[in-house]
Design a protein that fits this description.
Ribosomal Protein L22, Chain A, 5 helices, five-stranded antiparallel sheet, alpha+beta
Length: 213
């Protein structure tokens, strides 16, 4: 499989990704308890993304340990480690780095397809709606509405571990650079940064976004 995250993350970050579910028999008891009553699809996603996380942590020399969801579902990484997980239909991935080298990571993957009706209007600020509609009017295969959703997810995943507060969709205003494959998020609330940048790609049937700060 082509390395999807290589399009949005620097080589200094350790990541593992897969298109297949695996790791169902490798959950720690505390992890298995989290999804004991979940449907099979949820258990598979949960196990596989943790398989990815442990494989990525091994690249840093960090021993395997339970990765339990904490506040707002954010993964509880080992001391001295920052990271991010993502999963969607047919894709699971995790990216990690040492806290001494990186303060936060946010990654998100979504199917390369239009958002369901009504979702764009629910997540986008007026300026973002105008931007997405302008970009969509060009002859481009990129699903800009889905990209906006993914980028906002990556912003939140990077924000929450540092700020410790929930970030609403309307509290970050994004601008895409179609040529550079980057995006800039201006935060509209007080927090660890006023602005942050990330990278995006549409490849392998996915829209994927990444932030490293």
């Amino acid at each position: 499989m082509a390395e999807i995250l290589s399009a949005v993350l620097p080589g200094t970050i350790a990541w593992v990704e897969t298109r297949d579910d695996r790791g169902g028999d490798e959950l720690f008891p505390a992890e298995a308890a989290v999804v004991a009553r979940a449907v099979a699809k949820r258990r598979a996603e949960f196990a596989t993304v943790r398989w990815c996380a442990r494989a990525a942590l091994a690249r840093l020399g960090v021993p395997a340990r339970p990765i339990l969801p904490g506040d707002r579902g954010a993964p509880g990484w080992p001391d001295g480690v920052v990271g991010s997980m993502t999963h969607c239909d047919g894709y699971r991935a995790a990216a990690v780095a040492r806290r001494s080298e990186v303060s936060t990571i946010g990654v998100d993957a979504e199917p390369a397809a239009p958002l369901p009706d009504g979702v764009l209007e629910a997540i986008a600020l007026p300026a973002e709606l105008a931007m997405v509609r302008s970009l969509a009017a060009r002859e481009s295969p990129v699903h800009w509405d889905r990209l906006l959703f993914s980028a906002k997810e990556s912003v939140y995943k990077a924000w929450f571990p540092i700020a410790g507060t929930f970030l609403q969709f309307e509290e970050a205003q994004l601008v895409f650079d179609p040529q550079a494959h980057t995006f800039t998020a201006r935060l509209l609330v007080d927090g660890p940064w006023a602005e942050i940048t990330g990278r995006w790609a549409q490849t392998g049937g996915l829209v994927v976004t990444g932030i490293v700060a």
